Amino acid sequence: MSSKNILICDDDEGILDVLELILEETGHTIIPEKNSLNVRSLIEKKMPDLIILDLWMPVLSGDQILQMIRTTPAYKHLPVIMISASRDGEQIANDHFASAFIAKPFDYDNLIAQVRKLI
């Protein structure tokens, strides 16, 4: 299995750090980002193989970013895992065509399984 680029966007630095640690162990290159406004340019520059996106973030929310991804022909097929502690998170993720949804706090084995399934 070749190393893939995974873009993780979450405004919570603790969650970013944990996800980065877990997923680096699976042999992938992690692109952590706290500011959701930078996601579009990161997608264009780094062309990630997978995006993990927090739903509730300041300025641009995860569903707004996902909508931008799904309506941009160049990367509308990018796999996106939406993560959220919100009770409505799964519904919102499904409404915006996320590839998968994982509730916070997450089960690490489930997270790794979802990542493997999508890339």
UniProtKB/TrEMBL annotation:
Chain positions found as 4-aspartylphosphate: D54
Phosphoprotein found in the keyword field: yes
Protein keywords: Phosphoprotein
Keyword Metal-binding: no
Domain Response regulatory per the UniProt entry, residue ranges: 5-119
Domain of life: Bacteria
SMART domains per record: REC
GO biological process: phosphorelay signal transduction system
Pfam family, one: Response_reg
InterPro entries: Bact_response_regulator, CheY-like_superfamily, Sig_transdc_resp-reg_receiver
SUPFAM superfamilies assigned: CheY-like
PANTHER family: RESPONSE REGULATORY DOMAIN-CONTAINING PROTEIN, STRESS RESPONSE REGULATOR PROTEIN 1
Protein name: Response regulatory domain-containing protein
Species this chain originates from: Pedobacter ginsenosidimutans
